[in-house]
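To fix ideas at the outset, we first show an illustrative case, written as a sequence plus integers encoding its fold:
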Amino acid sequence: MLRTLLLLFLPLAVAACGFRPVHGTQFSAEQSPLQIEEIAGRAGHELRESLIQETRNGVPGAPEAGGLLVVDLDERILNTGFRTDGSAFRATIRLRARYVADFGEQAISGTVSSETNYDIPDAPFADIAAQNDAMQRAAGDLARKISNDMIFQLARSE
């Protein structure tokens, strides 16, 4: 009996303390509360797709009415390891994003970066696949950092 009463009142107690799950309301891609503007380039496309996945359920602390996210992306590919013949065998992809999220009455901005290393294979065209894979990993990491930064800033402003 006591156990049943506790189970009935537990959701009320959790709601009363102000608890909000990080991944709350479910939205489809068309109904996403955060619109993300196109980002130029292949890395920009990968970043935008990753951001759509990261924010598909909304951004905790943001108004449910929606908002607009604009991202300016800077991409650099640096050769970091060289063979004795001078050809590169290791490279680094650095992505740096400056973003502004406008939620109507409130706007937040920030700068985040991500860096991913990869080996450059000797096989023809394999270097393109390795670079694309590294780009996807860097874009996914950057999208998580942007999402987390927005959540942190919105929580601080409450």
Summary: The mean pLDDT is 83. The chain has one domain: 2-157. Helices lie at 2-16, 41-54, 126-157. The domain at 2-157 is CATH 3.30.160.150 (Double Stranded RNA Binding Domain).
